[in-house]
């Protein structure tokens, strides 16, 4: 069977792409197209389609989404790879390789410095076949605040589980580290849903503190989180009381009694305070767990561990392809990266 590859024009291919989604990704909302494909502040998504030559029918697609990455304070043009799929009856190596070769060619032609992605177990071998390399494993960092839901897995009697959870929760709090940071009046926090000018100031002043990190500008944050059609995100902001200086933020969303951190950024040296204040906020609001998807520097992971977070492996890896050949070893060092859930497609 013969296949052709076509670079999609988003204005004319929209209905075809949405039709492919309905068959292969039925849970995706159609609003994703206008938001993630067309409204990105860094430019429109790049999308490739694989079609049957005999009838022009789409049987597969992949996309890349522009993302500015700061490398030691200098912005490089990057893309996140994603939305890859092939119809079940066409899942042979040919169409898959054709699509991923176009992704790589886009870099080789000078249109991007770096492409990175979070492939699943099906797409990872194909991406590696065309030149992507594995940087490392994604992890989930979890802190239990209230143990009752876990205890109920073993003790079905709800009143007894609740009774047992009281001393367990006390021990979790005492030994988690959060009660050891003082200065309650030195800082104050605000929870909001929008990102204002002080986010640009924080980004410009601190972007060089992390070696490889996605841009945290006001424009990006409002698009990625405030405009997102999937979730209702909230933002925890930390300020210094004396001069109202903005020190950092945590973007989060709620899944029942779980708080999911999707992004964070902070002034150098203030992560401990930011975590301490956020944990206290989640306790006051009676949430049960805090969860973070993270990839990057082990020193950051160690900071979370001090506050009682535990590490759980995720079945995902970060892969990358870059034309910056002199930076290859640098890019393949996991400890140079800092990625969160919001850095995915």
Summarize the topology:
Blueprint: E1 3-7, H1 10-24, H2 31-38, E2 46-52, E3 58-71, E4 74-86, H3 93-111, E5 114-117, H4 124-129, E6 133-144, H5 148-151, H6 158-174, E7 187-192, H7 197-206, E8 212-214, H8 218-226, E9 234-240, E10 246-255, E11 258-266, H9 271-284, E12 289-296, H10 298-306, E13 310-322, H11 328-331, E14 337-340
Parallel strand pairs: 4-5, 8-14, 11-12
Antiparallel strand pairs: 1-2, 2-3, 3-4, 3-8, 5-13, 6-12, 6-13, 7-9, 9-10, 10-11, 12-14
**Low-confidence stretches at least 5 residues in length (pLDDT < 50)?**
none
CATH topology of the largest domain: Aminopeptidase
CATH superfamily of the largest domain: Gcn5-related N-acetyltransferase (GNAT)
**Classification by helices and strands:** alpha+beta
Q: Largest sheet, if any?
A: 8 strands, mixed, barrel
Q: How many beta-strand elements?
A: 14
In total, how many domains does the architecture comprise?
2
Describe the structure.
By secondary structure, the protein is α+β, with helices and mostly antiparallel strands. It folds into two domains: 3-131, Aminopeptidase (3-Layer(aba) Sandwich), CATH 3.40.630; 139-316, Aminopeptidase (3-Layer(aba) Sandwich). Helices cover 33% and strands 33% of the residues. It is built from eleven helices and 14 strands. It has helices at 10-24, 31-38, 93-111, 124-129, 148-151, 158-174, 197-206, 218-226, 271-284, 298-306, 328-331; strands at residues 3-7, 46-52, 58-71, 74-86, 114-117, 133-144, 187-192, 212-214, 234-240, 246-255, 258-266, 289-296, 310-322, 337-340. The chain has an eight-stranded mixed beta barrel. A hairpin with a 5-residue loop joins strand 9 and strand 10. It is globular. It starts with a strand and ends in a 5-residue tail after the last strand. The model has no long low-confidence stretch (mean pLDDT 90).
């Amino acid at each position: 069977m013969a296949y052709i590859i076509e670079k999609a024009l988003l204005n004319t291919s929209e209905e075809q792409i949405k039709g492919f989604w309905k068959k292969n990704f039925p849970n995706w909302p159609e609003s994703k197209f206008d938001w993630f494909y067309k409204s990105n502040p860094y430019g429109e998504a790049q999308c490739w389609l694989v079609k049957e030559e005999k009838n022009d029918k789409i049987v597969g697609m992949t996309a890349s989404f522009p993302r500015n990455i700061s490398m030691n304070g200098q912005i490089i043009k990057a893309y996140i790879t994603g939305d890859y799929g092939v119809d079940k009856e066409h899942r042979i190596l040919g169409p898959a390789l054709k699509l991923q070769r176009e992704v790589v060619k886009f870099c080789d032609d000078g249109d991007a410095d770096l492409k990175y992605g979070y492939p699943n177990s099906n797409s990872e071998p194909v991406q590696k076949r065309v030149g992507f390399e594995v940087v490392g494993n994604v992890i989930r960092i979890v802190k239990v605040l209230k143990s009752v839901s876990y205890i109920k897995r073993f003790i079905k009697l709800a009143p007894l589980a609740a009774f047992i959870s009281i001393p367990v929760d006390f021990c979790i709090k005492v030994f988690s580290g959060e009660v050891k940071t003082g200065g309650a009046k030195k800082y104050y926090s605000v929870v909001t849903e929008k990102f204002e000018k002080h986010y640009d100031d924080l980004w410009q002043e601190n972007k060089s503190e992390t070696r490889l990190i996605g841009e945290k500008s006001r424009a990006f944050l409002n698009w990625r989180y405030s405009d997102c059609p999937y979730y209702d995100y909230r933002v925890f902001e930390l300020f210094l009381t004396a001069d109202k200086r903005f020190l950092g933020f945590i973007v989060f969303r709620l899944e029942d009694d779980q708080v999911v951190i999707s992004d964070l950024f902070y002034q150098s040296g203030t992560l401990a305070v930011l975590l301490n204040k956020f944990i206290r906020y989640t306790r006051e609001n009676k949430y049960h767990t805090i969860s973070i998807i993270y990839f990057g520097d082990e020193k950051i992971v160690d900071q979370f561990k001090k506050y009682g977070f535990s590490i759980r492996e995720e079945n995902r890896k970060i892969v990358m392809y870059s034309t910056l050949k002199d930076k290859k070893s640098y890019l393949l060092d996991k400890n140079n990266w800092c990625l969160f859930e919001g850095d995915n497609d």
